[in-house]
């Protein structure tokens, strides 16, 4: 089914604009995530930087609506019933990317509630490591998806699950810290947003290795089978 979906990325396919729109969504959402990280850890943002993120969020939302409209229009045509499975997959994937844009925007807004810089300690360093894992994964996700690289996707899903577990453990460490309320809130929110961004990236990757009814679902036994 993924090969059917990927066929719309070919320039000779009349629906290839859907593929172009999806690629643009991923690119913009990745840019938002990187920019939001700079703002979150830097503790300040210019008006231009904030506006850029909000503008990108609007672009992602418009692209999502455009893809949905094209899918609905395509499926309303006679003889397209065979396209339903990969159309449903595409609808699911664009929602994941739209949610990434929302979380990136939310991450950039955390500085508004913080009264002091993030502490220069092991907890912040751990969060920086998690950030870099999420960003590195996001940068290559489209290439892995477009090439249907099952081996790489499986490896990245395993790594992403580890990042999610580390995020949960970090929230526990933050809750036992002696930070002031605003710093505690900022660290918890940052950790949760990176977990959610990483989770939606994994959802895109799961489409490479899972059938439609199991996209967004990563059973550990199944992932182990795929990696063996």
Unreliable parts: none
The structural class is mainly alpha
Kindly identify the CATH topology.
Methane Monooxygenase Hydroxylase, Chain G, domain 1
Can you identify the CATH superfamily? Phosphate transport system protein phou homolog 2, domain 2
Q: What number of domains?
A: 1
Proportion of helical residues: over 70%
Largest sheet, strands/sense/barrel: none
Average pLDDT level: 86
Report what the structure shows.
With 228 residues, this protein is mostly helical. The chain has a single domain, classed as Methane Monooxygenase Hydroxylase, Chain G, domain 1 (Up-down Bundle). Helices cover 77% and strands 0% of the residues. It contains eight helices and no strands. The longest helix has 29 residues. The protein is globular, with a radius of gyration of 19 Å.
Summarize the structure.
With 228 residues, the protein is mainly α. It is built from eight helices and no strands. It is globular and about 65 Å long.
Topology summary:
Elements: H1 2-6, H2 16-42, H3 47-75, H4 84-109, H5 122-146, H6 150-175, H7 181-209, H8 220-227
Descriptive labels:
8 helices; Methane Monooxygenase Hydroxylase, Chain G, domain 1; 228 residues; mainly alpha; globular
């Amino acid at each position: 089914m993924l090969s059917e979906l990927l066929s719309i990325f070919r320039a000779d396919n009349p629906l290839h604009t859907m593929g172009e729109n999806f690629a643009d969504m991923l690119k913009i959402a990745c840019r938002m995530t990187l920019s939001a990280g700079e703002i979150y850890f830097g503790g300040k943002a210019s008006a231009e930087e904030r506006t850029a993120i909000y503008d990108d969020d609007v672009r992602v939302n418009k692209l999502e609506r455009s893809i949905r409209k094209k899918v609905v229009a395509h499926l309303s045509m006679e003889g397209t019933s065979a396209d339903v499975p990969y159309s449903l997959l595409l609808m699911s994937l664009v929602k994941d990317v739209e949610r990434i844009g929302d979380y990136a925007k939310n991450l950039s807004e955390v500085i508004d509630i913080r009264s002091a810089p993030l502490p220069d300690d092991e907890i912040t360093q751990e969060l920086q490591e998690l950030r870099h894992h999420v960003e590195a994964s996001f940068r290559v996700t489209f290439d892995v998806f477009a090439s249907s690289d099952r081996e790489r996707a499986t490896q990245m899903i395993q790594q992403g699950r580890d990042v999610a577990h580390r995020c949960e453990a970090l929230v526990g460490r933050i809750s036992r810290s002696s930070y002031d309320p605003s710093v505690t809130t900022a660290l918890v929110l940052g950790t949760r947003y990176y977990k959610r961004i990483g989770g939606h990236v994994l959802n895109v990757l799961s489409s490479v290795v899972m059938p439609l009814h199991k996209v967004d679902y990563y059973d550990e036994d199944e992932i182990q089978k795929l990696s063996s």
